[in-house]
Amino acid sequence: MHIHILGICGTFMGSLAVLAKELGHRVTGSDANVYPPMSTQLEAQGIELTQGYDAAQLAPAPDLVVIGNALSRGNPAVEYVLNQGLPYVSGPQWLADHVLQGRWVLAVAGTHGKTSSSSMLAWVLEHAGMSPGFLIGGVPQNFGISARLGGTPFFVVEADEYDSAFFDKRSKFVHYRPRTAILNNLEFDHADIFPDLAAIERQFHHLVRTIPGDGLIIHPAAEAALQRVIEMGCWTPVQTTGEGGQWQARLLSADGARFEVWFDGRPQGVVDWSLTGQHNVANALAVLAAARHVGVVAELGIAALCSFINAKRRMEKVAEVNGVTIFDDFAHHPTAIATTLDGLRKSIGNAKLIAVIEPRSNSMKLGAHRDGLPGSVVQADSVYWYAPANLGWDLAASVAASSVPTQVCASLEAIIEGVKAEAAPGTQVVVMSNGGFGGLHGKLAAALK
């Protein structure tokens, strides 16, 4: 079958393409923006990519068009599909019908940490010899690919609450029907499709309604929004993590690089890994609980975490030039920015920390998180915010109250000049964006040489 994917360079759709190819289909795709890591992964898989959405790419007609949720009515390719009566489906529906059917699905949902946690969980199962399939919204470095079918019934999926397609406004995760579900955390996000937090909580409850009675739901005990979701009705056993939970961590280093795991009041072992930050410690506890549900004892899960390498673009060290270290991170919400910087600060002590941030997500573009931005960067010594001409709101006014020295820049060149002027050996630079950021990481590394 020839499957054409519209929006193929999105992290979910690109992963879907890999699975379709592995199933033996001929896969092609197009996107408005073709950039790594998904573009490089797809090219390595021999998947033909087209830039833009010209209707000509759909002639001769493919057998099926999978339409990504970034596309809407008015898009020339979408209009052609509808006018020609071509068969089409959403990505989550295709995944459910052709990959997840009859499998033990382990889903990782939440506002933050989905990619890291699903990468961790896939690695823990792999380390235990369970050869899971997975679909992850990033490229886990222990595997080097974002999706695979796997050799057993177990399948790990990053379960996003974003909508499925222009014709299916349900959250993606309602299609997946997991038996094991991690609900990491829940905050207001996706302001382009949700009016308030209560609307997202309802979608999470739709997910809870699909989990069988012999399944398992895992969530932090102290997360009030998730507690409200569970109180709407729950028919599945629940295990809790973190403060007041059944699964707890005792930090052995302030940055979270070493911690002891406890379950039901008993020590299970020590995680000594390359990650930092309280958020990753929380992710690890949920992963150990999920893995235990499919038969992986905590001791084995802990051993796996000690050799875990986080997904690309999750505090990924991309360059070290003349003593200056550059990290690439996907953080695009004030909470994620704050926890990432806090983890690095606890790891590097008093070394200089520069944050470079692009407010690129749909919620950021709508200004939904702007009040939280000044407080999110308090662990940095200096911050550069990127404010392109089309941002639509006054970023400079929003971050003016920041206690940290702040520059708002209208160009990448201005950012590079600023960072170059103040970076010295030992400086740590974290570049944060959920997009390609115009190749800033490479340009910055070249300038520092």
Automatic annotation (TrEMBL):
* Known function: Reutilizes the intact tripeptide L-alanyl-gamma-D-glutamyl-meso-diaminopimelate by linking it to UDP-N-acetylmuramate.
Swiss-Prot/TrEMBL cofactor(s): Mg(2+)
A single MF term (Gene Ontology): UDP-N-acetylmuramate-L-alanyl-gamma-D-glutamyl-meso-2,6-diaminoheptanedioate ligase activity
Matching entries from InterPro entries are given as: Mpl (IPR005757), Mur-like_cat_sf (IPR036565), Mur_ligase_C (IPR004101), Mur_ligase_C_dom_sf (IPR036615), Mur_ligase_cen (IPR013221), Mur_ligase_N (IPR000713), MurCDEF_pg_biosynth (IPR050061)
Q: Which reaction does it catalyse?
A: UDP-N-acetyl-alpha-D-muramate + L-alanyl-gamma-D-glutamyl-meso-2,6-diaminopimelate + ATP = UDP-N-acetyl-alpha-D-muramoyl-L-alanyl-gamma-D-glutamyl-meso-2,6-diaminopimelate + ADP + phosphate + H(+)
Q: Tell me which family the UniProt entry assigns to this protein.
A: Belongs to the MurCDEF family. Mpl subfamily.
**Residues in Mur ligase C-terminal domain copies:** 313-435
The residues covered by the Mur ligase N-terminal catalytic domain are 2-99
Query: Binding of ATP: at which residues?
Result: 110-116
Q: What is this protein called?
A: UDP-N-acetylmuramate--L-alanyl-gamma-D-glutamyl-meso-2,6-diaminoheptandioate ligase
Species for this entry: Pseudomonas aestuarii
Q: What class of enzyme is it?
A: ligase
For this protein, the Enzyme Commission number is 6.3.2.45
Q: Which keywords does the record carry?
A: ATP-binding, Cell cycle, Cell division, Cell shape, Cell wall biogenesis/degradation, Ligase, Magnesium, Nucleotide-binding, Peptidoglycan synthesis
Q: Which Pfam families match?
A: Mur_ligase, Mur_ligase_C, Mur_ligase_M
Mur ligase central domain: which residues? 108-291
Q: In which pathway does it act?
A: Cell wall biogenesis; peptidoglycan recycling
